[in-house]
Amino acid sequence: MGLRVLFYLEFVHPGLEPFGPLTLMALARQKGHTCDLLVEYDDYSFFRQTLKKLKLYSDNQKKNSRKIIDQVARFNPDIIAFSVQTGSHNHALYVNRLLKKRFNFISVFGGPHTTFFPEFVKEEGVDVALRGECENSFIELLERLEKKHSIEGIQGVVIKKAGGISSAEVGKLVEDLDSLPPLARDILYDKYPFMAKAWMKSFMTTRGCPYDCTYCFNHAFRKLYKDKGRMIRQRSVNSVIDEMVHVKKKYGMKHVIIQDDTFILNTGWVKEFCREYRKRVKLPFTFQARANLVTEDLIAALKKAGAVSATMAIESGNDHLRNDILKRHMKKEQLLKASKLLRKYDIKFLTQNILGLPEETWQTALETLDFNIKCRPTYGYTTLFQPFPKTELGEYAEKIGIFDGDYTKLASLSFHDDLHTKIDDKLKKKLVNLQKLFAIIVRFPFLRPFVNILVKAPKNNFMYRLFYFAFKRFVFTFQMEIE
Prior knowledge:
globular, 16% strand, 16 strands, alpha/beta
């Protein structure tokens, strides 16, 4: 018979498939379980999303609650699985408690938040917490629950115990990524047609990252999985290409997004991929580039295969912030060379930057702006620093006293809305306004002399937000080809 397993997601975005839940659904279905997906905000429209970002529209929580209850009643799950990040965990708890009052099911929470905070299982209504890459532990959990056996002792599975929680040790990493079934895209696309109709689709070819960027969780993840297997793993070229060909044939995609942080890490693999992609997939694609790995022959091969756009992280134009605080270990010369090569081969590119970092000053923020102007990207993308827990940078923000460690503040944050750190109010206003104007000034440098005047406007004012979202949409859609 198998179990009935419902996966809950707060939202999905066209072209950004939720890889983790779709992998678990595919595995569970392979073992004979019945799976379904519930996306709370499932009425995606660009117009509505823009109004929400401009704070001119808000969702009706009562209406959403009724919709969630109705869908759960129809499916009647044995298990509801929640995927949560720090920030989304509070809303997921609210939904779980809402449903626990009406239905009898086992709640399973996984994702980055439970990976680094296994004690989350002690929250009211939470039955099970999963840690890390949980393919093996999730399937063993389902098997034991179906047989009504004890679930204590499964690696990566955390439950409440008298006086605390069970062992939180993770299991071994899945080393052979080709052994995993294809994503259960059909469940997502059949239920939410706007995801199927999206002209771009996302793919992952690797897991793991060898770098130590302090704003990322990878350094903590590597510690968690010490002696648990190879951290850097890559699918075979044939596995990736076969999946892309299948999705193209069945869903008619017109653009491929490769989401890997370290896609170009293995030069030999990338060149083999380019040869096969050019022969079998034949679609424009977007990839992520790391400047110190960029070479001319690699960019030439990617362009020949169909690459039309890329993203590349600068993060800060100030050497101390970029290399000492963020540990990017990236020279300006490398970033400039990579930018020049991308322009030479007519690959549109987006630079990624963070404003409001620990030790940021107005002068260092302007260095970031000026360096982006020098790199001449198609779009200079920037976010506002958020001190996520278990990251080295988040802990440093606490250490120097600019963040109080209250991560519940992240529940309603947006990287594009505000800074949650304790810095001078005047500097905060200038940084928040600069974030809205950053891409426009990078694209139109004649505005640079007016920056100090422009940032004096009220923080997050309507016109700046409107310019920001309108310009971003224009560039991403008509020039970057990634939305």
